[in-house]
Structures are given as C-alpha cells and as structure tokens.
User: Fold these one by one.
Assistant:
Number 1:
Amino acid sequence: MQRYSALGLVTQAVRHNENWQRVWRNPTPKKHYDIIVVGGGGHGLATAYYLAKLHGVTNVAVVEKGYLGGGNTGRNTTIVRSNYLWDEAAHLYEHAMKLWEGLSQDLNYNVMFSQRGVLNLGHTLQDMRDIQRRVNANRLNGIDSEVLDTKQVQELVPIMDCSANSRYPILGASWQPRAGVARHDAVAWGYARAADALGVDLLQQTEVVDMIIEEGAVKGVRTERYGDLYADRVGCVVAGNSGVLAKMAGFKLPLESHPLQALVSQPIKPVLDTVVMSNHVHGYVSQSDKGDLVIGAGIDSYNGYGQRGSFPTIEHTLQAIIELFPIFSRVRMNRQWGGIVDTCPDACPIISKTPVRNLFFNCGWGTGGFKATTGSGHVFAASLAKGEMHPLAEPFSMFRFHSGALVDEHGAAGVAH
Ligand code: FAD
Ligand code: PYC
C-alpha cells in the first residue's frame, strides 16, 4: 500500500492551492468552440483533457455553473474498483482502472491513488452466492477478484467484529486487491490543470440555462454570464442535473436524482488499511491518509436536489458501521454532506447520442461514477471527437430503454439503492 509522508501531504496541499488560483480566473470565452463540455466535474474535465491530448481538439470549453469539482466529484468517498458482474460494465470499469494505474504519471500530478484493496462483505447465504457468481464473472474477464471466508476477512481487518454472534454475521466477502481509493479533489484539479495547459477554456461560475437548437441539431448553449456560446458538438456531463439539461433540449432521460450522503470522523491513528463495504447493511468505511474515517450511506429513498440528505439514513448507516466496528463507537464525527446522484433503472450509466443531433450525454453514474472518471472521460472524448460512440460506450446508449437491452448492475453497485 502506498503511504505518504506529512511533508509530502503539505507540499501537495500547497501545490493544489497554487493550481486552484491558476485555473480560477476565467479566460475570455470564444464565440465558437469545436466542442463545449457542460459540467466541470471529474468526468467533464477528463473528457476535455483527453479531447485535447489524444484527439488534438483544443478549441474546447468546459462550462461549469459552480467551481471545478464542487459537485459529486468533490463529495464522494473515492472508492475505485472494477469488480462488476456483466461484461459490458466490467470492460468499461476495468478500462478506467487501467487508466487510474497510470494517472498520476500521465497528469504529472499526484492523485494519491492507493490500491489498498476493497472488500464487499456477505452476510447471508444469498449474498455469498451472488459474490461467488460475480467473482467468477470477474475472473473470466481477467479482473483480479477473490472470494474470502470469514477467517480471511478477519485477518485482513482485525478490528472488525467477525464473530458468529455479531448482529450482522460476516460469512465472507469478495476481495479485489487492485481496488482502492484516490484523492478526489486532486483528480479534478489534475485533469483541470492538464486540460488548461493544452488550451482548454475552463469557464467557472457559468451556468448553462438553455440549449440553442436549430432544425433538430444543437448549435450551442445559453449562459447567464457570457450569453450564447456556439459549438459544433455539445457534451453534457452534469450528473444529478442531467434531467434538467435534457429538459432544456426537449427530451426526457430515465433518471432519478437522489441525495447520497457521507461523513468523515475526526482524524485518528491508522487502524484500517483497506476499504470495507457492505451493501447489505448499507454502509462502507475506509481511512484516509489524513486519518479520518470516511463513511458513506445508501441513497436517500426520496428524490431531491438538497446537497445534504436526511438524518434517518445516516443514523441507520452509523448503527450498522458501529455493529461491524464496535471500536468506532466513541469516535467523533467531523463533517457530513450529501451529493445528488442520478440513478438509472439498471444502475448503469448513459453515455450516448441523443434525439438532438450533435448533442451527447454522459450521466446516470449514480452512486458509482468516481471510479469511472478516467474511463468515462476517455471514451466520451473519443465519441465527441469522432461523432460516433466509442465501442465501450455503445452498450450504454440511452436507447437501450427502448430496445430493452439493459445491463443490470444493482448487485455490483456496492451501495444500497
Ligand atoms: P459532478 O462531479 O457532479 O459534476 C457535474 C458538474 O456539473 C457539477 O460540478 C455541477 O455544478 C455542473 N452542472 C450542473 N448543472 C449545470 C449547468 N446547468 N451548467 C453548468 N454546469 C452544471 N463513486 C465511486 O465510484 N466511488 C465512491 O466511493 C463514491 N462515493 C460517493 C459518495 C457520495 C456521498 C456521493 C454523492 C457520490 C459518490 N460516488 C462514488 C459517485 C460519484 O461521486 C459520481 O458518480 C461522480 O463523481 C460523478 O462525476 P461527474 O463529473 O459526472 O459529476
Ligand atoms: O461504487 O464502489 C462504489 C461506491 C462506494 C461508495 C459509493 N459508491
């Protein structure tokens, strides 16, 4: 497992701040871009970076209503894994994983990708059957994945209550050793800095309020800050706001927006050097390099746009985490927050053309899109540059909801829906 010194962390924080200042001032926008990317989260910034770097398309603007990385990218619990059940999803997430493995070098920016392994716990016989099936499918796809029994889980996480009489007995787990965590704001800033250096315009505090559409084709976007900005193609990567943008373009997406919450504790000495997830009891936990316990919940069951979430959900999660880790019962919470995730009926993303020509959408990542940031940006950039969907994106067309060819990943979503 990669570890960082205190001095290294301070140096990194100073560099982050310098880079933040550097990208903060908006450039003067051009009137016409080859491609406009709406949404300056990780996926939008990665898309812009790969457009410039791999496809030579530098006349690109990223239009962001708030600040870069201030949406779900800066609100997630940073778990990266690729152990999905179905081939379509497994190929996409493993593509992303391979890019993660070289990302710090590629961006020349330490995104603190730490492959400390992820456990998905099983608490019932059916959980264990599902785990066995998913691990077999992963291995057939060349993805590192193992089934562990209770004793092996206990060896990996000595502080967890793996006793037979615990409230949620642990029968075993799936284990992906190459999985892990990364520093989410560094991912946004790393991509932003690299895209900026290649000539991409990053326009912050610039909300898209309408689409400019003529004769069935998108011509640009309307913003409050800069008026109309024109482009040959527009890619929308706005996560929980995708339904709002689709409405501007005159169509509906099969998405629901839900709050998803997380919290961090006060920093404590190192006690947990892997990631533990339990879909069954609705909670997961890791420990950041700063020492905070990073804890997340299942989605709030109601729809909403409030970036905070409801108390019963987080209370339920903490009850479950404390049952699993009685040692955490005296640790104090430091901060709690929510993000707005856009969930599709099959718990898979939409990376797609739309009924409007030259308008593309990348959304529906729901509770699990941080891990996909690299791969999503990579395939979306190729699709926008060529005007044709990348082969890895094809199964995730929005038109699958007409054909019925869904890719159901509820079981591997890792977070309770
Ligand atoms: P965002 O980062 O949300 O970016 C979209 C951007 O679009 C925002 O910055 C927003 O301001 C902007 N925008 C919206 N409307 C407009 C407009 N009209 N004009 C201009 N800009 C606009 N995934 C994992 O893989 N692992 C995890 O551990 C994990 N944990 C999570 C925990 C929580 C609490 C949450 C909320 C999510 C978690 N996720 C996780 C999911 C993950 O965060 C998201 O799937 C991912 O970050 C989506 O990235 P994005 O770039 O598409 O969206
Ligand atoms: O998809 O692995 C995941 C995840 C973990 C926490 C939230 N999403």
Note: The mean pLDDT is 94.
Number 2:
Amino acid sequence: MAALKVGVLLSGRGSNLQALLDAAAAARYPAKIVVAISNRADAPGLDRARRALVPAETLPHRAFHDREAFDRALDAALAKHGVEFVCLAGFMRLLTPWFVDRWRDRLINIHPSLLPAFKGLEPQAQALAAGVRVSGCTVHFVRNDVDSGPIILQAAVPVIDGDNRDTLAARILEAEHRAYPLALRLIAEGRVRIEGERVAVAGIGASGILMSPGGR
Ligand code: GAR
C-alpha cells in the first residue's frame, strides 16, 4: 500500500515533527511526511524538515487579513504537496471551522495532558497546580472546540514530588515522541475507526493507554 502523504503544521521547536520524521525514515513506516508548514519563519522545526529533505514552508499569519484567509492559503499549500492527512505538532494557531470541517477525520493533534483534563495553554502547569499524580499526552482528531475530538491514544506519565513545569513537560514530551508516531502508524495502517465521537483501534486493545516510562 502506498504511504499516506502527511503534512505537519508547527509553530516552534518541532520535536514532535522530528519524532514523525524519524519514524517515517524507516522503510516499513506506512506514512511519509511530504511537507512541514509553519506560521513562523523562525520556527526551528523548519530546519528539522530541511535536514530530512522534506519541503519546509512558511505562511506568516500576519500576512492575511483574517483567520479564514490564512486557513485557505494553508489548505492550498497542503494541496500543492498532495497532502492526504494533517498532523498538528505544536501549531499554536486556532484553526477556523472552515479548515477543521474540510479536513474532518484527516486532521490530528497532540496535546500535553490527558484530555479532557487541562485544555488550552500551559497544560503542564495546570496539572501541577491541580496536584494530579499522573499526567501525559493525548493524540486526538481535531474538532471545532479547542483540544477536543475523538481520542486515538494517550500516554500516561507520573507526576513526581518536586516536579516543576519544565521537568514535567520534559517527561511528557518523551511520551509524546512515542505516542505521535504510533498514532499516525495506526491510522495509516487503516486500524483506526471513528464510531460516534469515540475511536476504536483494531488490534491494540487495552494498550491504547501507554505507560511511560515503560513499554509501548
Ligand atoms: C508539545 O508539547 C505539544 O504537545 C504542544 O506543544 C509542544 C510542541 O513541542 N502542543 C500544544 O500544547 C497544543 N495545544 P514541539 O514543537 O517540540 O513538538
């Protein structure tokens, strides 16, 4: 089966893009990253794409008079590269309903909390403030409400006494780097079905919850 053509949208560091690029470099990985697009020209993630010989594009949001104009340009850029599926990887722009509906069920995001807990900004700090003992990350299909949509998989990590925002974020990030490539693999293999607003993953069973550190 031909590899699923994936576009990655990002705004910054791009470590999740890197995890996807690394996974996709393996011969048997069922998806290929065909373009990385940032709304910020200085996003370090763009260099990660270039180093992997993946086209990297900038679409400065300030150049557009409104959100939908930006999203239409984004859609055109994705189409130009033959993108079939979109991964948000630290893309810090709200997408319009026009874009979200156009890419419905072909658009996923990773968020550094166990959704539906701690939506929005600084979820790691929110987790610390709430005093939870377990946090993690969530890979989910994107819907119009922020940080909501059918959950594909989650990875849990412990919150350790003495953690600060950075130590917890680093632990969650490690889990993200395993979870995102796995979620994309499951989708590209055709094992992910959306039923109502819940996801069924063929052949993964209870390991839809990953523990980290630990196995996959
Ligand atoms: C990641 O932790 C990702 O989960 C988060 O931004 C970071 C991007 O890091 N995304 C969100 O908070 C989206 N709501 P990266 O640029 O190194 O992949």
Note: Strands lie at 4-10, 31-38, 56-58, 85-88, 107-111, 134-141, 151-158, 192-195, 198-201, 209-211.
Number 3:
Amino acid sequence: MNPTLATRPAHSTGDLFKPIQRDLEIAERILRETIESGEPGVSRLINHLSHYRGKRLRPALLLLTARACGAVERPHHVLAAVVEMIHTATLVHDDVLDGASVRRHVATVNAGWGNQASILLGDYLFTHAFHLTSTLGEARACRLIGEATNRLCAGELHQICQRGNFDLAEEAYFDIIEGKTAELTSCCCRLGALYSGMDDDMVERLASYGRYLGLAFQIADDLLDLVGEERSVGKSLGSDLEQGKMTLPLIYLMHSASGEKTRRVLELLKNPANHKREQLAPELAACGAIAYARRRAEEFATQAAAQLVGLPSSECKSILEHLTDRVVNRDN
Ligand code: FPP
Ligand code: MG
C-alpha cells in the first residue's frame, strides 16, 4: 500500500516557534543524520517518519526553556533531537498497542509495514536516542532521560493493566498520564534549564511547568479522542473507548451516574461494537463530563503558567506562557 493517505495541513505551531526555528532545524538535522541507514528497506521506513512531523512540542519545550534561561548551545540541540526521537519511538509503539491506522494524516507504520517492523523501528529510535545522549560525554542527561523514559513505560504499563477497569479512580488516571506524558515534557524543560546553568530552584520550577503542561496536554488529547474531528486531529480517534481505557470524562460520567444509567453506560463501554463515540457523546455532554475535563485541563495549565513567575521577561518566556493556553485550546 501507499502509506501516505492525505496531504498534511500546515502546522499551527510554526509561527509560534519562530524565535527557535533555526534551533529546531539544527535539532532536526541531527535527528535525521543520526538515524539514517544505508539499507534501502530500513531507509524507506525511516523516511516515512518524516510524515510524522508534528507539533514538535517536546524539542520546542527544551529549546524555549533553554533560551528563556540563557543561550542555546550544542548540548541543547543534541538533547532536542534526543527527546523528539524518544517521543517518535513511543508513538510508533503506541500505535501498535492501540491498533491505530492513521497518525498525523498518514498511515501508521504498523498499518504500512506491520507490527514487527514497528516494534523494531521504535527500538531502533529509542536505542539511537540513548547512544546520541552518551555523545555529550557526561552521565547527567543519560540519567535524567533514563528516569523519565522508565516512568513513561511504567505509566503505559499501568494503563494496560487497568484496561477494562470501568471503575478506574481519578487518582489512577492522573498517575497514568503523569507517567506516560508529563514525565517527558517535564524532562524536556528540566534539561533546557539545567544545560543553561540555572540554579536548582529554577530548574525544579521549570520541570514543574513541563509536568503541569503535560497533564493539561494529555487531558485535552483524551478529550479529542472522545469528541474531536478525525479530519482535523489527523489520527485514529475513539481508540481509548475501543481499548477499554478510561479517561477523565468517562471516569466522571461513570461516577456521576447511578442505578439504571450506570448499567446503560457500562453496557455501552463493554460493547465490542463500533459507534461508542456517537452513543456516548450525548451522555458525556449532558452530565457535564466534557466541561469538567476541560476545567481540570485549564487548572493544570494555570498551574503551569504560575511556575514561570521569577523567570526574567523574554520572548521565549512569553511563548512558554502562551503554550499553556495553546495545549488546552486546540483541535489537533
Ligand atoms: C500516546 O498516548 C502515547 C504515549 C504518550 C506514550 C506511549 C509509550 C509507550 C508505548 C511505551 C514505551 C515505548 C518506548 C519506545 C520507550 P495516547 O494513545 O493517549 O495518544 P494518541 O492519541 O496520540 O495515540
Ligand atoms: Mg494512542
């Protein structure tokens, strides 16, 4: 099959990241040169990843934090390439786990080449990321990235273990998204600040910024999976429902229902047939679950912005502030 399904629309973060555009391009070049392969089959797989170009949120967070704290140096560019490589690896693996067929408006690697090639491509990216980090010649970045990716995997494992648990508690959901998403966004900001020579207090604040931002981002992502438009989001939606993964609006719906309604919602959630999204949408809107999840995402975004107090005013600080709004109010 031809894995390219559609033309990808221009990304809205392009202008927002203008002050670090050059840095993003350097990081992109390091990424490309690191993973290139002389073997034509492998090369085709790697080339397909260029269609996965997304919001570049993680390298941008690292570079924006670095610039807001001082100058961007070679280690920042290398680390920006590393975090994007790790993020891409997790998406390639995640699409296998979710059985997803579309990501960023193109066919997923698993849809085009199958699960075996996808797992190995994810491993290839992941191991390259650690090797590239080691070229910085010090253990600090390897340790931080190792810790963050370890927690990321633990979050994903926690999620898998809770699949089909329709009585999932909110705390368990927050624990899952903190691991699978917020650990890496936090690590990006920590690395940006650390490698710009910030003091411990500011490094911790910026790491908290990244953590709150990641939590807000994932809640918004989970909302899109339930009520987004596949055309604008550009990836397979409804997969949380198909996979029996309880996200914040669903947890709210289950906990706000009682008696006959609980039984009806449970039946819908357990039903292997399609159309769950369509059937659950009115229930989610009527009980206030969508509004509730949005509010929680906005609260985390506000907490993220509060961590930036104390950082000197700059263009990149303003972008970090603006991002707290952008991660919640988006349609892709
Ligand atoms: C997207 O979640 C997935 C993640 C944020 C993390 C996935 C991590 C793994 C599969 C484990 C580790 C893999 C490696 C190589 C370390 P989602 O399914 O909610 O988002 P989506 O809608 O974009 O698919
Ligand atoms: Mg997924």
Note: The pocket of magnesium ion (ligand 2) is lined by residues 94, 98, 100, 239 (CB under 6 Å).
Number 4:
Amino acid sequence: MKSVQSTASLTVAKFGGTSVADFQAMLRCANIIKSNASNRLIVVSASAGVTNYLVRLSHKNVLVTEQKLIVDNIRAIQLNITQHLSIDVEVELNKEINSLLDELLQHALTQSLQYSTKTTDAILAFGEQLSSRIFAEVLQSIDVAGEYFNVKQVMKTNSLHGKAVVDIKQLSKQCEHLLVPKLKDKVIVTQGFIGQDSLGNTTTLGRGGSDYSAALLAEAVHGDNLSIWTDVVGIFTTDPRITEQARAIKEISFGEAAEMATFGAKILHPATLIPAMRCNIPVFVGSSKEPEMGGTQIKQKVASNPTYRSIALRREQTLVTVKSPAMLHASGFLAKVFSILAKHELSVDLITTSEISVALTFDNPSGSTQSLITNTVVAELEQLCDVSVEHGLSLVAVIGNGLTCTKGIGQSIFETINDVNIRLICHGASANNICFLVNESDANLVVEKLHNSLFS
Ligand code: ASP
Ligand code: MG
C-alpha cells in the first residue's frame, strides 16, 4: 500500500450522502482523493437515505417489526457497497457492520421503552459511523492508505442533543494532539455530523451538519483548502430544477455564499462558512460525479460583485405573528418575546414589526428531528399576546451586492411578480439580500420569473 507523499498543502475534503451512496459513487470519490495528494483529511456523510431511516428509527413508538425493517434497509444499502470489495475485506467488514447494526437495534429498543434526545443522537450517529468505516476500505482498495478516525475523539460539544454546539478550543487542542500528526503521511477518513459531550455521550450538529464539521476540522488542523463534494457542479444562480436558465457560479464571495446557504440553497449547511471566513480558508464546491466540470470557488475577494448574484428558495417556512395592544408605546415587549424563543432555542430568520405586532419566520422543514413551534411555545407566547401561526409559505431571497444602496431594486424585483401575493418583505439589514415570503404554490413561478428577468 502506498503511503501518501506529504505535500505542503492540506485540503479537507467532505463527501456528501449521494457521493457515498453506493460503491461506484465511493470509488469516484476515492479517485478524486487519489488524484490530489493534498486531500488528506476526508469527512463523510452517511450514505444517501440512511440518516432519513435513522430519523424514523429514533421516533417515539416505533414498533419492533418496523425497527427491524429499517435496520435491514440500512444493512442492504451498506452491504451493497461492501460486496464490491475483495472477499476477505468484505467478510471482515460485514462482521463489523452487522455488529454495529445490532448495537443500533439495541438503541432503538431503548428508545421505544424510554424516549430521549440522547438516544436519538446515539441512533443518528450510526449513518456516518458506517459510511466512514466502509469508505476507508474503498480507499485502500485503490491503494490509498486510508485510515479510519473516530471524530468523537476531537469533536467535543455541549450536551444540546440534536443541535450540539462545538467547543472550538477543545476541538483545536484535541486535533493538535490526535489528528494533525497523522495527516503528515496518511489519508484520514472521519465522520461529519457527530460529536461527543463531556459525559461521553454522542451528540449531533443538526441535519446537514457534515459540511459544518468539515469546515470546523479544516480550521482546527490549519487546512489550506476545504472542498465540499456533492452532486451538483457548484453553486447555481438558482435551483436548476426550477429553471433551466440557472447556471453555475464560478466565483462567489464568502458574504454572498453565506447568505445563500442561510436562505435555502441546500448546497451548503448554513454554518459552514463561519469557520472558513474566520480563517480565510477558500471553499470549493463541486460534483463528485463530474469532477472534471469544475465547480464554485468561495473566497474572500472575488473579481466581480454583481448587483444580482442568485436567488435562493426555502420552502416550509413557519410564520408566527404576535400581536399585543400593550406594545403601543411600550418597551420591553420584544425582549419578552425573544426570551421565550431563546429559552426554547428557537432561531428566528426574518422579522418585521409594526407598532403593535411582530412577524417572525422559522425554518422547520420536514425531515427535521424536532418540530419547532410546539404547543408549549405558543402557550407561553399567549401569556403575553395574541399568537397566530401560519404554514405553507416559502422564503425567496434575492442575493447580491449593494442591495441597500442601488436605485430601482424594488421595482426590478416586485414589478416582475406583481401578480402574486407577497406575505412579508425584509430589506435593509443586509446589503447582500432582499427576502420575502410567498405562498408555497407560487414559489417556483416567482423564482423562475425573477431569474429570467434579473439574470437574462
Ligand atoms: N447525515 C446527516 C444528514 O443527512 C448529516 C449530513 O449529511 O450532513 O443530515
Ligand atoms: Mg449536505
């Protein structure tokens, strides 16, 4: 087996769920790694579909028959990959996989007896544990010295299960000891999405969190580059499933890309760019299916700063309107509302206020592990004011530069879509975006029309 030729530069490469979905996909990723010796820290997601199965498995009251079925479905996905490895490797690896799946079933049984978010995280973590173990073997099968590394040794978090907060100092310290020395002459394969609290319990960073894990690791090991390998050839001007006119963006600034990630371009977890911006680590986004197509470079300084860069769309938004006549000429009302939201760890996206009411949006897509605006939250808010909760809305974000100081922006945008009902508009807080809510049923048409008019 070849050990890696140490090069001066170090790239942290993250491969998403579709990139490690099956053997062919994993093999393509392994070849990407092999083709560039700077790729030495590899972060993987769970194989596509596995985390969704695990989310189902972690719910309350899942019958034992269904638990077994889910675990068997996961087994099928993973053994489908290992069957392509040499017979000795396959046999050994399958033993490990089966014993991990036995352990998973135990957690599922525990969960059905006594539900906890701690067990939920223990369950959710299996996806990445399985895929990373298998991927290390796929690397070895093409003669790359890939070594499995348990990320829980370094990714220390608090105990907020489901959206744990990483202790960056601890991460950096542990990486210095345990990971950096290994990266000199090896390719290390580790897990995204998962961490460990100070009690030794497994935690997770939230759905899609592997990108963020990779960025945090890039920062902690002083990586020179971060590559996010996914199933699209970079970041697009808008979702290409909505309009064929969408095109890949070659270069985009951190600020704009962060807005896009926050406002729904599913391609990056919203927190991913925070560590990258902190350390000025350029981020590449490309497709592991078509690496030769190139991708998008996200960096601090870019050659052009157009007024309109892209349009992002986020569906399944929840709009909460709180209204209280007591707010008229009063102070402290917003603080009270926000303290309730903070207590429930709810993060607000958009906010508009009038004299006696406040409208707030929350992102609560299906596939989330928890529902956000619970009856408890509503009941607590109702102690203060009238509360209404609306669903079925989509958030459209027009992203670009200088949007707070360019004339005619409002006209260019809203004239194009003057036949739809706009439920709420946010403009002015950031020069990089204008956001508004429309009905779910209007969303695609709105994006298509806007894209055709702003980008033609
Ligand atoms: N496997 C996790 C998820 O599907 C984390 C990730 O893929 O980023 O959400
Ligand atoms: Mg992802």
Note: The longest strand covers residues 308-323.
